[in-house]
Amino acid sequence: MDPKLWWYLARVGGLMSWWLLSATVVWGLLVRTRVLGHRAPHARLLDLHRFLAGFSLSFLVLHLLGLVADSWVDIGLLQIVIPFTSAYRPVAVAWGVAALYLVAAVQTTSLLKSRIPQRWWRYVHYSTFPLFLLTTVHALTAGTDEDAARWTALLVGAAVTFLAVYRLVVGRRTDDGPSAERPTRTADAQGSRPVVVTEVQRAADGVVTVEFAAADGAVLPSWEPGAHIDLVLPSGLIRSYSLCGDPDDPATYRVAVLRFDDGRGGSAEVHRLREGQRIAVRGPRNRFPLVLAERYVFLAGGITALLPMIRAVEAADRDWSLVYGARSRTAMAFTEELQALGGDRVRLVPQDTDGLPDLAGALKDASTRTAVYACGPEPLLRAVESAVAARGPDRRPHLHVERFHGSGAAGTVTGARAFEVELRRSGRVLPVPVDRSLLDVLRTAVPTIEYSCGEGVCGSCELRVLDGIPDHRDNVLPRGDRARRDVIYPCVSRARSPMLTLDL
Asked: Residue 251: CB partners within 8 Å, gap ≥ 6?
């Protein structure tokens, strides 16, 4: 083995880790300063920020392993942990040791973000600025790759300085100013836009498809399978519906709506829409994303959210199957398209002739590499959850569920207690009694808070938690995220702590 190999790996790991860390800082500032737009940052933008940070850590590990393994610089674990103990450039190494401690603090609090107060994470996260400075000085004084280090420091330093000043001077006006000087969480602030109904068609018994285009002819925001939009109907009702059109068509949104005569009026009003009529839409949002898997099983009591997913997995040449149940064959929408896509992989189960779907049979070949997507009424979803849970951990697929309405657990008042909520921007403190929802109390102070379903399903009322412990009773957060302390859906959720502080 070349004796210089470890030294080269240490240099490559160090430079790549520093470059990726710099990119992480710049990207984080781009997202938080709203340079990329004035809407709340898209989840994928934040995912890229986290990905860059994780990628930087992997090269940091390579850098440290190279240093320890290289015999020329003579750096061991002691020199990595304690500053000024290295015989090789002790000051330069000390800058790196200090940076290592800050990296550990930032990454630890980021991993624990959902379990610690938001302000703790925020304060530690601000240390990425001195972390960037420490790593830059470390790179400039390490004695290798000086030209690359110098030019990177100049370019990235200029970008970070500009964005940091922008954040302090401009971003603070929109993010941290008094409530009178900033937009509230209204539909307009969240991107409500006027659209015109371009087509209304019958899709099945009691089901219509409605297509919309932007009223000004502009391109509509992009979306991915699983996304939904909020329709702001002429009566003022706001209802969420899954998009079932083509994500590659930037000019059109399409929804399919089943009429509930004994519902709350939203579906009936959608059925009364006519071509040429104008309404408004919000979104799209995606709380039911399609994940990468080896195989897919789709279990449908309602098909609209799953239809774009099925098209996508078929286009990607993935293995999939569908079991689609409804009260009758004539009540099933898009059956011709589904059978054309899947042939014998599609099983239609009309309840009036075939009874209930055989969920155990549908899952018999599922493994831990299978993604199961289920959408439909609550009895179906509970049966799917039971069928998946019964398979045991070594044969249990990954289950993804979207509910039409809140489950029995969501929004239940069992064990509810009174608490107080602080609106951080205005400084107001409001009591939340046992017999009132948090959303109801908040809307007395901030009437423009957006919401839709009122059942903890759609996620439209999401608010940021700054302090306190939420009592999550919604159906939006998956089980693994129910300990999060940075978000709440106030239509059904409450507080476990005596005080809850919100970003309002």
From this structure: 213, 214, 219, 220
Structure letter (DSSP) for residue 503? -
Q: Which of 408, 406, 357 is nearest to 383 (CA)?
A: 357
357's tokens:
């779907």
In whole angstroms, what is the distance from residue 295 CA to residue 369 CA? 7
**How is residue 81 written in tokens?**
């942990």
**pLDDT confidence of residue 68:** 83
Share of the chain above pLDDT 70, in %: 85
Contact 424, 503 (CB under 8 A): yes
Residue 273 contacts residue 228 (beta carbons within 8 Å): no
Q: Is the pTM of this model over 0.70?
A: no
Residue 201 vs residues 183, 229, 245, 278, 455: alpha-carbon distances, Å: 38, 19, 13, 17, 29
What are the pLDDT digits (tens) for 267-317?
999 999 999 999 999 989 888 899 999 999 999 999 999 999 999 999 999
* Residues 131 and 60 sit within 8 Å (Cβ to Cβ): no
Bridging pattern class, strands 207-214 and 193-204: antiparallel
Q: Give which of 44, 485, 27 is closest to 284, Cα–Cα.
A: 44
